[in-house]
Structures are given as C-alpha cells and as structure tokens.
Amino acid sequence: MIDLCEIELGMPLVNELSSSSAKVIDGKATAKEITESSVVIDVGINPVEGMSCSRGYRLVGDVCYEEANKIASAITPVPGGVGPMTIAMLLSNTLTAAKRAYNLE
Fold this sequence. Notes:
Number of domains: 1
Helix content: 25-40%
Largest sheet: 4 strands, parallel
Strand order of the largest sheet: 2-1-3-6
C-alpha cells in the first residue's frame, strides 16, 4: 500500500504500481485497507496541532500509524521514514549529474 496523494509527480509511479500487485491508496488509508501482508510506505506529511510539542504541532502521515502498525508486516514512520532515502537519492543523482557534466565518469 502506497499513498501518493502528496506527490505531484506520482502518477507515473501510481500507474506502474497499479499494474503490478501493489495496492495504491490516494488519500487517507484506513485499517480496513491493510492486511497482514501489507508493506505500508507512507509518503504523506501533515501538521497536526499538538500542544505537548514545543512547536505547537506534530507531523503525521496519511496512514494512522498506530492502527496500521498492529496489522501491516512493515510500515514507514512519519517523520523519518522516506525522507532520509529521498535526500540520499537526491545527493546521489546530483553527484552523478556533476560527473557527467564534467566528463568524470
């Protein structure tokens, strides 16, 4: 299950995953849509008021983590789930582009 509602460039990925055995959820995912074999990759990020936090809000994903974590075989946390991988790939692609631009490959 992958939630891509927050990704503007997500449609090619949605189409690719939809043609495979992946279930793509566009919007809020509920526990009814999650099975024991689900791997949930939550890419949504939403601020929610939280007075116990120093900023006055906390960040949550599009999937109810507490519910999904009890059912799914694996789930990415928000924050800290896909963000570090996104940054790593951005840096890797930037380095590859620089090498190509200066014929260093």
